């Protein structure tokens, strides 16, 4: 892993898998494999629906397009379903983005945007991470 990323990530947040339809994917991931599931959430900013599933402590996000102009619609048309990205948990998303930019990594997002379940997210370009689309995730902060 690039040293610039190692300095900012805490742990793996989730693995995202693009699916044409969550209802169909649920048959495999929940019914056949036995992953536990949460509720489907619509993420308007990304024009997707997301179903979070868990295999023990591991989080898997099933992502379906929610609009014809969703980036995920384009992904499905070009590559079909499958692994979309790895997401890494960070404590401070602005700091993480600044460190990566200073290290010369190409960013898709230079500022945080809303993610599923109250998170803030930003993407690093796959050309900066060996061909793997990388998401940085800051979980919601607890208010005192």
Short structural summary:
This protein has 144 residues and is of the alpha+beta class. The chain has helices spanning 3-6, 22-32, 71-79, 93-102; strands at 9-18, 36-43, 48-55, 58-65, 82-90, 113-114, 120-124, 134-138.
Low-confidence spans: pLDDT under 50, at least 5 residues? Answer: none
Integer tally of domains: 1
Instruction: Return the average pLDDT rounded to an integer.
Output: 92
**How would you sum up the global shape?**
globular
> Based on the structure given, which CATH architecture is correct?
Roll
Order of helices and strands: HEHEEEHEHEEE
State the share of residues found in helices, binned by percent: 10-25%
Round the Cα radius of gyration to an integer and report it.
15 Å
Annotated CATH homologous superfamily: 2,3-Dihydroxybiphenyl 1,2-Dioxygenase, domain 1
Distance N to C terminus: 35 Å
* CATH class descriptor name: Alpha Beta
Q: Could you describe the largest sheet, including whether it forms a barrel?
A: 8 strands, mixed
- Strand order in the largest sheet: 2-3-4-1-5-8-7-6
Task: Provide the β-strand percentage band.
Answer: 35-45%
Question: What does this 3D model show about the protein?
Answer:
The protein is of the alpha+beta class. It has one domain: 2,3-Dihydroxybiphenyl 1,2-Dioxygenase, domain 1 (Roll), CATH 3.10.180.10. Helix content is 24%, strand content 38%. The protein is built from 4 helices and 8 strands. It has helices at residues 3-6, 22-32, 71-79, 93-102, and strands at 9-18, 36-43, 48-55, 58-65, 82-90, 113-114, 120-124, 134-138. The protein has an 8-stranded mixed sheet with strand order 2-3-4-1-5-8-7-6. β2 (36-43) and β3 form a beta hairpin. It is globular and about 45 Å long. The mean pLDDT is 92.
């Amino acid at each position: 892993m690039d040293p610039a990323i190692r300095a900012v990530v805490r742990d793996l947040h989730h693995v995202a898998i693009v699916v044409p339809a969550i209802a169909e994917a649920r048959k495999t991931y929940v019914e056949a494999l036995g992953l536990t599931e949460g509720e489907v959430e619509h993420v308007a900013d990304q024009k997707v629906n997301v179903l979070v599933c868990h295999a023990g402590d591991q989080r898997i996000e099933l992502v379906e397009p929610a609009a014809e102009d969703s980036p995920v619609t384009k992904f499905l048309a070009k590559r079909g379903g499958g692994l979309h990205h790895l997401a890494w948990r960070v404590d401070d998303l602005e700091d993480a983005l600044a460190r990566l930019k200073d290290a010369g990594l190409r960013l898709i997002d230079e500022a945080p945007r809303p993610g599923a379940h109250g998170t803030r997210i930003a993407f690093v370009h796959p050309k900066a991470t060996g061909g793997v689309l990388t998401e940085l995730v800051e979980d919601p902060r607890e208010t005192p």
